[in-house]
Design goal:
The protein has about 375 residues and is an alpha/beta fold. The protein contains 13 helices and 14 strands. The longest helix has 20 residues, at about 120-140.
Length: about 375
């Protein structure tokens, strides 16, 4: 399977500066670039310490300047909050500046606070999102754009620049509800799977998408990407006890943003359960490196899981995943040995959790040899 990383910019402890949060995230991203990860996927959120990255396009430009081979995904551009022509221009510019390394992920958003403060009525958000995605793709696929829609109208406008990847960067849409999944299939767009749904619900949604796409494929305007990134929260530690503690911390933090009454929508059985129990029992993958490898192999077959969108619940989890899990699920043994030499530890405390990992910078020739 391929492995990318869903990169949040959480700010749980405000005694730590945001500059430090960003610096640590960028150190991690540089390690990804040197150790065989497919992509970093940047998460956009607003008005919350859940993840302080209000512009994934700006952050992605900085990431592009600090990396050489890593693909750069948006997970997601909250398209209902943007003017769609700005999205088309900015992502195309990013694709050029990054040398054609962009994965474009778009989503509607879910936070009522964001809808309210951006002046987007929640009952219009799905239609605004869908029209924006259609406009962005049309702007990339055509020399000039003419569009007449519910929210936007343009006549014979030339949208520049065009992306380096033609006809456009690989595109995905975040889809959790059946209506959103059905629309994505009808458009010939691949889907991004969320980090909150239970494993069996992820499998059910994939079957639903596949059945719908099979039904409409002859009429779709494009062919979806073959890869389907599935976001999973992961806690890895040397012992099962340590991993469970990290998972419990992550479950408690995530549960703060998932009301109990909303849990049923993320479960195949549609039961309302305690959000922490939902994450611990049915979402988070946790354990020793060996146990996590075994669980990923099971999910690779059962879901299926061909692209893991890794969301590590601690820096230690990322460290151990990079050294002892990723090589067994996606990399060859030679790269595994070289990756170990690229990593060393420098622990520091963040909210009582020891975190920290720093990459040894290597020459371009050595990196090329690792990734060959």
């Amino acid at each position: 399977m391929k492995v990318g990383v869903l990169q949040f910019f959480g700010w749980r402890d405000r005694s730590i500066s945001l500059e430090t949060i960003y610096a640590r995230a960028l150190e991690r991203i540089e390690i990804m670039d040197e150790t065989g990860y497919d992509a970093v996927w940047l998460a956009e959120h607003h008005f919350s310490s859940y993840s302080v990255c209000p512009s994934v396009h700006v952050m992605a430009t900085h990431v592009a300047a600090r990396t050489k081979r890593l693909r750069i995904g948006t997970a997601v551009t909250l398209a209902a909050f943007y003017h769609p022509l700005r999205i088309a221009e900015e992502i195309a510019l990013l694709d050029i500046l990054s040398g054609g390394r962009v994965n474009w992920g778009a989503g509607r958003g879910f936070d009522p606070v964001e809808f309210e403060n951006f002046g987007v009525p929640a009952n219009e958000s799905a239609d605004r999102f869908r029209e924006a995605v259609e406009i962005v793709l049309a702007a990339w696929e055509n020399d000039r754009l003419t569009h007449e829609g519910r929210f936007h109208a343009y006549r014979d406008v030339e949208v520049l620049p065009k992306p380096k990847q033609r006809p456009h960067p690989p595109a995905w849409v975040a889809a959790s509800s059946e209506g959103a999944i059905e629309w994505a299939a009808d458009q010939g767009l691949a889907i991004l799977m969320d980090p909150h749904s239970a494993h069996d619900e992820i499998a059910r949604k994939q079957r639903f998408y596949d059945a719908r796409y099979t039904e409409v494929r002859e009429a779709t305007p494009r062919t979806p990407e073959s890869e389907r990134p599935i976001a999973r929260l992961v806690a890895v530690a040397e012992t099962e006890t340590e991993a469970r503690l990290a998972a419990e911390r992550g479950a408690a933090f995530s549960a703060r943003y998932l009301p109990r009454e909303a849990v049923a929508a993320f479960r195949a059985d549609k039961r309302i359960v305690d959000p922490v129990d939902h994450y611990m029992d049915d979402v988070i993958i946790h354990g020793s490196p060996e146990r996590v490898v075994d669980e990923l192999r099971r999910l690779e077959s059962d879901l299926p899981l061909d692209y893991l969108l890794l969301s590590p619940l601690s820096e230690k989890s990322f460290d151990l995943f990079t050294e002892r899990v990723q090589p067994d699920v996606s990399l060859g043994r030679f790269v595994h040995q070289r990756a170990n030499r690229l990593l060393h530890h420098r622990p520091f405390e963040e909210g009582g959790i020891a975190v920290g990992i720093e990459a040894r910078r290597v020459g371009e020739d050595e990196v090329a040899e690792v990734l060959r």
